[in-house]
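Reopening this ticket.

The earlier resolution said the output was attached, but the attachment link was broken on my side. Pasting everything inline this time so it's all in one place.
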Amino acid sequence: MQKSQVIRAAVVLSLSILVALAAGTLTGCQAAKAVGSIFNPTPALPATGTDLPKRVVVVPFRSTLSQYVPRSLAIGRHLEKALKANPGTVLVDYRVLEAAMQRLTAPGITEVDQQLYAARLTGINTVVRGALVDISVRRELKGLYGFRENIPFLGLEAQFIILDAGSGTQVGERSIRRQVKITEVMAEGLEMGKKPKAELLDQLQAELEKEAAQWVVAKIADQPWNGMILEVDGERVKVTGGTDNGLAKGAELLVLRRGEPIKTGAGRTLFLTGKQVARVRLTEVGKAVSWAEVIGGDKKGKKIVLRPGQVVRIP
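Inline output:
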């Protein structure tokens, strides 16, 4: 066999091995994803009222990197603009949530639970939290084995968490990283402590913001709508939900018993719902809070007992 034929045969064999390894890797990823979904700690909720607009608040974004706090806050503000422009969400000023949190007297609860409790009282359906978590150089191997280049990339990464205020469950969590190829000289400078060029970070931030806005809006669109009883006055109840959510006078809601609170491994409190206990009809409708009258229970002849904290949903 000639030398050129030997070389061609070796290259074909190498490529075949790489393809087989890639197929195995993909299969492994799919299996890991399937196993991970089985152990998802967030219970699934029925998709009721997903077409109703949600009242959403964005908590000011933070950063683990003190010098990039302004950039992190800017990412949160861009997300607010996207939510404000989206017809399926009604943006609520964070100061409304902050004022409600200051009125709470529940010592010992986590900051997240405090935000969720305050959100329920003010008719907020969704709480969005986030942070800029990383700006760094990473190197990626490119090319076939034996001919690889260790190419440097400058990357910017942020984390986003969406919480359902009514149940305390997590609607979604995602880390988004955008990166751009840089020169070896630039990479060495950054690794020695030199700051990245602002225009490069601006480019990465714009790409990240666009992807994050699309993901957050889509996740909230799939979120079930939940309201809550705030006050009981005889046969009338005050509930969260109103014109901001597309509700009108005469709309009927189901009242569900609230289950026992459950603590997650992260320390967050979840509230699962129980059986239906009543039906109510809206009689006075505000933007975020409305009054309703009781029109029926779950069983004929059985006394209807309604309490603050019980969940209301679209039938």
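Reporter confirms the inline version is readable. Confidence is low (pLDDT under 50) at residues 1-47. The domain at 54-221 is CATH 3.40.50.10070 (Rossmann fold).
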